[in-house]
UniProtKB/TrEMBL annotation:
GO terms for molecular function: nucleotide binding. InterPro entries: Gfo/Idh/MocA-like_OxRdtase_N, Gfo/Idh/MocA_Oxidoreductases, GFO_IDH_MocA-like_dom, NAD(P)-bd_dom_sf. It comes from Okeania hirsuta. This is Gfo/Idh/MocA family oxidoreductase. PANTHER family: BILIVERDIN REDUCTASE A (PTHR43377), GFO_IDH_MOCA-LIKE OXIDOREDUCTASE N-TERMINAL DOMAIN-CONTAINING PROTEIN (PTHR43377:SF6). Residues 4-125 form the Gfo/Idh/MocA-like oxidoreductase N-terminal domain.
Amino acid sequence: MEIGIAIFGAGRWGTHLIRNFCNHPHSRVIAIVDPNLEQLQAVQKRLQLDKDIVLLEDWTKALELPGIEAVAIATPASTHYEIISAALKKGYHVLSEKPLTLEYSESVELCKLAEQQQRQLFIDHTYLFNPVVQSGQTIVAEGKLGELRYGYATRTHIEPVRPDVDALWDLAIHDICILNSWLDQRPVEVQANGTVWLPQQPPQSDLVMAKLTYPSGFQAFLHLCWLNPDKQRRLGVVGTQGTLIFDEMSADTPLVIQHGHLEEQNNRWKAVGVSREVLAIAKAEPLGQVCNEFLNCIRQNTASQISSGWVGAELVGILCALNDSLEQGGKVIPV
C-alpha cells in the first residue's frame, strides 16, 4: 500500500524529507511545493526525481491534487498553523516540522482538529528517533548514573539566523525534547534571559540562557546562540555516579558515560572510580525512522506514542513559558 504525499518546503530539511519519502516503499510523492521555483528545479535535478512529481509554488493548489492522503510540512514555523489547519480540514494526515506552532493555544486547537477529523498529526522531533537519544533514555532509566543532580546543554553556531523566530525558538526545543525523554518528566517552571546584538526588526534574542526545573527538583541549564562560530551540540545529565554526555559533534563517540564520584578520605574529598565508557550505538538515520513511524501511524490510523501532535503542543507550551520569562527579564514562569 503506497500513501500519496505532498511535501511543502524544498529547503535543506525539506530536501531530506523528499529523499526519504521517495525511497520509502510505502509512500509515493505526488507533489513538492516551494515558493522558489529555482529551488524546486534544483532539488528535482539533484535527487533525480520522477518527472511525474508535480512541482508547485502555491501550497493551496497542492491540497486540491488527486491521490494525496498526507502532507509533510518543512516551511517556516510562522506558516505552520495555517497550512496544517487547511490540510487537516481537507482530511489529510500531517507531518510537521517543529515547533508545531508559535502559540500554545493554536497547537492545542490543531491537535483537537486532528482528533475530530480522525487524522494523524505527527511532529518531526527527530532527536526522539535518534539511536543515541534512545540509548541515553535507557541508561538513565536503569539508574546507571545514580541519583540525578542536574543537566546542561550547549547548542551554538554562527548561522543560520532565522527571520521569523529567535535563538530560543530555533534551538531550545531540541535539548528540551531530549531532556524530557531522558528524565521522563516535564518542567514545572522555567526561566530565561536573552541578549540582542543583530539589528533585526522586530528585535530577536541572539543569545539565550535558560533554566528548566522539573518536578523532582532536577534543574537543567541551556546555552543557546546562533552568533558563535564555536559550533557545539553537547548535552549532559549529571548523577551521583557519573555523567551521561551526548556530543553530536563527536561522530565516533557521540554517547559516553564519564564515571566517577567523590569519597571523603582523611577529611578531604577524593575522586574515585574515574573512567570513560564509550557506548556502542546502533546505526540508523533518525529522519528515516521519523518517516517510517509517520507512515505506520497513517496505515494503522493510530497516534504515535513517540511524537504525536500532543507531544509537539506540550513542547510549544514550554517554549511559550520560556518566551514569557524572556520578555519579563528572566522572571520564573510556571509551566
